[in-house]
Amino acid sequence: MTLLQLVVLAAVQGITEFLPVSSSGHLIFVPAVVGWPDQTLLVDIAVHLGTLVAVVVYFWRDVAALFAGVYGLTRGRRDPSTRLVLMLVVGTIPVVVAGGILVAFDLTDQLRNPEIIAWATLGFGVVLYGADRLFLTVRKIEQMTLGHSAVVGLAQILSLVPGTSRSGITMTAARMLGFERSDAARFSMLLSIPTILAAGVLVAVDAVRLDSVGGLSEAFFTGVLAFGFALLSIAALLAWLKRATFAPFALYRVVLGVALLVWIYRFDAAGLT
Length: 273
Hints:
By secondary structure, this protein is mainly α. The chain contains 11 helices and no strands. The mean pLDDT is about 90.
């Protein structure tokens, strides 16, 4: 992979991982549109690790609370930190089970269809706008219950369809439950920690199985860049949501979805003629 490819890949993954615009959809379409080959599995692991480290660094106080919560659970304690651990566990289980089923039945590649990605980008952009516009803004993350986290976790299953956006669908679900925008984003990002970790483990297993572990230097470089882009993206999103809405992200998704559909159908028409 060229230097330009590595930088673009790191930027796309780092910036879009936590924005409600679908990182997987961008990572599939960018190489397809410009004619680049897919990144290696090791580079894929590196960019996921970079974004994972970014969210851990940014929310280091919450991560410290999670460790305290795990310890507290072993001691039988019930406090805000143990409650946060339980909420993340409840929110993560559905997507792990659903993802495992897709892998077991070898269905993941079938979902990487360009039309599916384009329609998901467009459709869930409209849903995000509706949720943000129509539902109340009355709850903080401290008021979240296990029931709330279960609903967000079930919604996260939809993120297995490329183009849906893991962060987008979890923020949409949280907004439908009445959570403030910045709190919806914060919980979504905390929920990304076990989810990205699980996805990274799956990719790592594939890399070992396929003996695709070459290119350590370019993987490290891309991972560090992805970390930097992700850190900036997290800070910018949370700052924006403290004073504004999800509308620009929803509009971007609609425009991107329409553009992708036009590109796909024009390509198909040209192929047919």
